[in-house]
Amino acid sequence: MDGGDRAASALGANAVRKDLGPETLRDIAQILKASIQYGLDHRKEAVLHSMRWARDMEVDLADKFVGMYVNDWTLDYGERGREAIRTLLRVGFERVSSPTRWNSSLLRNERYCRPSRGSGRTEKRRSI
User: What is the 3-state secondary structure (H, E, C) of 60-110?
Assistant: First the structure.
């Protein structure tokens, strides 16, 4: 993913604590999937409902915009999506872990600096 590689990737995800147990995790997954499916099955109503946040968009454009974020991939992004997430995490870890790959443009402001452990100097924290 250094410019030439392109991978499908989710724009967001839901995280659930594992310690809630397998039954609760299964229930939450089923509820989320049913909710997304309902929105897909009732797209026109969902788009019309979302128009209050559409910032003066026409309905057709809002529908196109919603379709970019809520679609069949939202229900299950499949193996291609899982591979994209693995790649994102791997590349992110490599970039954050390697001081030679530091990109200062990722630093938003000085509040992301912290004292380095035991060194008495300040070390820049990476923001990803």
Answer: HHHHHHHHHHCCHHHHCCHHHHHHHHHHHHHHHHHHHHCHHHCCHHHCCCH
Q: At what angle do helices 59-69 and 43-50 cross, to 10 degrees?
A: 110
Looking at the structure, tell me whether residues 63 and 31 fall in a common domain. Answer: yes
User: pTM surpassing 0.90?
Assistant: no
What is the tally of structural domains in the chain? 2
Contact yes or no for 95/128 (Cβ under 8 A): yes
pLDDT in tens, 81-119: 888 888 888 888 888 776 555 444 444 434 444 444 444
Q: Bridge partners of 57?
A: none
DSSP label at residue 56: T
Which structural domain range is residue 63 located in?
A: 16-76
Structure tokens at 16: 């659930």
> Are both 27 and 62 inside the same structural domain?
yes
